[in-house]
Specification:
Length: 478
């Protein structure tokens, strides 16, 4: 069921929050050994919340998400529920407070059912780089699920939760959404509070919805957007959406994102979607995006630089691997960080420190910032003449577990289509675009700042015409 359907049945009394939670807990517990979508299934918390909601319902205070279980990426702080970022260094960390998004979800009656697996500190594109082992793609258990919000993607695709939250620094919501045949939206920078989101690269990341369909995506956006005094980067924006027609919609198709390096079958699926929109009155034009060859370098220098600063706080004193206080502080700090961080996180801290160091700052970090401004200006100039920019979400379909993980550059390639939106701060959505040999692929749409409503309008048209979103993998039938 979708969140919307659950809310309806709970409000009419045909279903109780306890029934809903028990059903999803049962699925989650049965399927998790196979998929590894959850790091923590918050069984007790979910049951307790469901019981409290029953009381609230009787008192007549429902909410927009009354009784709806939600899977939450383990990078988002949840009061009383361990939050690990899939890292050994955070093992045993139980946040004393809720992230703003969690507070808002609870206020509307949503129930946290568990914390989902991810690449450690959200650094990766396959959910293989987790201290808790890889998440498996429900469509093919030998394949990756995408990342870094892969646990959230798999949980929704396997219907272990009707909706989920992910975070997206360079594609981490959209990549797993596309690999899992679900909808994933990265909102405009500054529209969803990052308070309580454990930072990786603060100038790029946003929390966003991962859902089976477009209506649930809109519902979740209504709940999580809106100003929050705990995040100083926020703009005054509240999501609203009135579905309309795509007739007259102007689509830009940058040819660089369909050519070399992109699997032809993926490009063809996305072209099918473009033609479908055309048949509904949208118009497209092929354009050139000459900066395409620089987007990955630009993104990775900025993301790693910010990461090296953000991750300096982990000293292992309060949680994480046991800390030997008899050692001099520097030795203890080095030991804990050496044991607590995985290989990719260490690589990024080292590269980020290098890019920020005296002598190299101007050559790498500053240059990347200038390039970022150029990329942003280019995106915004395209969006003066067009409503949306269309690309594949990823250049290739879900790959085999183990195939790319040894080669960082091969993994980074997965982000070539998605990082542009983060660099420019614009919203972007991944919509199911069909299958290649039984593996899902997604089409990505970007729009101008705060034009999420346009993205949902496009996504709704695709959804109504294709019905891809109703397909569920045979692997997850119980
Ligand atoms: N794959 C990208 C990275 O590793 C994006 C990750 C993300 O969006 N959190 O940085």
């Amino acid at each position: 069921m979708t969140a919307k359907q659950i809310v309806k049945l709970v409000l009419t009394g045909s279903l109780s929050p306890v029934d809903v939670v028990e059903t999803y807990l049962d699925r989650a517990k049965k399927l998790n050994p196979k998929i590894n979508a959850f790091i923590t299934i918050a069984e007790e918390h979910a049951r307790r919340s469901a019981e409290e909601l029953e009381k609230r319902l009787k008192k007549g205070f429902p909410g927009k998400l009354i009784g709806v279980p939600i899977a939450v990426k383990d990078v988002i702080s949840t009061k009383g529920i361990e939050t690990t970022c899939a890292s050994k260094i955070l093992k045993g960390y139980v946040p004393p407070y809720d992230a703003t998004v969690i507070r808002r979800l609870k206020a509307e009656g949503a129930i946290i059912i568990g914390k989902t697996n991810m690449d450690e500190f959200a650094m990766g594109s396959s959910t293989e780089l987790s201290a808790y082992g890889p998440t498996r793609n429900p469509w093919n258990l030998e394949r990756v699920v995408g990342g870094s919000s892969g646990g959230s993607g798999a949980a929704v695709a396997a219907r272990m939760a009707p909706i989920a939250l992910g975070s997206d620094t360079g594609g981490s919501i959209r990549c797993p959404a596309s690999f899992c045949n679900i909808v994933g939206l990265k909102p405009t920078y500054g529209t969803v509070s990052r308070y309580g989101l454990i930072s990786y690269a603060c100038s790029l990341e946003q929390i966003g919805p991962m859902t089976v369909d477009v209506n649930d995506c809109a519902l979740l956006m209504e709940v999580i957007t809106g100003k929050d005094c705990f995040d100083s980067t926020m703009i005054d924006y509240k999501f609203k959406w009135t579905p309309r027609e795509v007739k007259g919609l102007r689509m830009a198709v940058p040819k660089e994102f369909f050519g070399e390096g992109t699997d032809e079958r993926v490009a063809n699926r996305v072209w099918d979607i473009i033609k479908l929109l055309e048949s509904h009155g949208a118009i497209y034009e092929e354009i050139s995006f000459p900066l395409a060859r620089y987007v990955l370098a630009c993104y990775y220098i900025i993301a790693m630089s910010e990461a090296s600063s953000n991750l300096a706080r982990y000293d292992g004193v309060r949680y994480g691997p046991p800390c030997d206080l008899s050692l001099p502080w520097y030795d203890s700090y080095s030991k804990i960080r050496g044991e607590g961080f995985g290989i990719e996180v260490k690589r990024r801290i080292i590269l980020g420190c290098f890019a920020l160091s005296a002598g190299y700052y101007g050559r790498y970090y500053l240059k990347a910032l200038k390039l970022r401004t150029m990329i942003r200006n280019h995106v915004l100039s395209i969006l003066k003449s067009f409503d949306v920019i269309v690309t594949p979400t990823t250049p290739f379909p879900p790959f085999k577990i183990g195939e790319r993980v040894e080669d960082p550059l091969a993994l980074y390639m997965a982000d070539v289509d998605t990082v542009v939106a983060n660099l420019a701060g614009v919203p972007a959505i991944s919509v199911p675009a069909g299958f290649i040999d039984g593996l899902p692929v997604g089409a990505q749409f970007m729009a101008n700042h705060c034009c999420e409503d346009l993205l949902l309008t496009v996504a709704k048209c695709i959804q109504d015409e294709t019905n891809f979103h109703t397909k569920v993998s045979k692997e997850v039938r119980l």
